[in-house]
Design goal:
Helices cover 66% and strands 0% of the residues. The structure holds fe (ii) ion (2 copies).
């Protein structure tokens, strides 16, 4: 039968505790980072409804952090210090704060589409983990991540159907260029994530 650790009191040894804390650290850091980047996305959301929705996503990411943070606190982590001392969003994704700079709605949509899509796949695995408190927290988180992912997909679809009525940059070619640049094999932490495909960038 698969291992099940129902509470922190059942944690079997120091190695297991360290592994669970590492998993939670990676997730918690990204929950805060995503909220911070959604803050940048709000600036470029084209309608009030989009701004409200992105603001809600931002609050949900911070709630996800609180859910994971509460479990980390149970294991002895000083969560107030954790939030205060962490590097800002971009640095948490790639090691360099300058990497994640949202500069228009195309950036915002690609961020939403890719980050929340990845989160949905990864957190689905977390819901099957042996540490039950973490698995349960992620079952709650996953429902909201699926909503974020669906919005990112819908925005991207709409953007790609846009006939580009004189807008510069025209959405579809620019979306394709940035998307391809973002996925380019061999892209390393030092290269900008969202501006990598821009023609005007060196
Ligand atoms: Fe999240
Ligand atoms: Fe999300």
């Amino acid at each position: 039968m698969a291992m099940l650790v129902r509470t922190k009191a059942e944690i079997p040894d120091a190695a297991y505790r360290k592994m669970v804390l590492t998993l939670m650290d990676k997730q918690a850091g990204r929950e805060v980072a995503t909220a911070e980047v959604f803050g940048q996305c709000v600036l470029y959301a084209p309608t009030v409804e989009d701004k409200i929705r992105i603001t809600r996503f931002q609050a949900e990411e911070l709630k996800h952090f609180q859910l994971i943070g509460a479990l980390m606190r149970e294991l002895g982590v000083d969560i107030d210090a954790y939030v205060r001392d962490r590097q800002k969003a971009g640095a948490r994704f790639t090691g360099d704060e300058a990497d994640v700079q949202i500069r228009d709605w195309i950036d915002a949509t690609l961020f939403n589409f890719m980050i929340d899509r990845a989160a949905t796949f990864q957190l689905t695995e977390y819901t099957k983990g042996s540490y039950a408190p973490l698995a349960k927290a992620n079952a709650v988180i996953l429902k909201e991540e699926e909503g974020h992912k669906d919005f990112g997909e819908a925005c991207l679809e709409q953007m790609c159907q846009d006939p580009a009525t004189g807008r510069d940059p025209a959405p579809l070619p620019e979306v394709v260029r940035r998307f391809a640049a973002h996925l380019r094999p061999g892209r390393h932490a030092g290269q900008p994530v969202l501006s990598a495909g821009r023609a005007q960038d060196p």
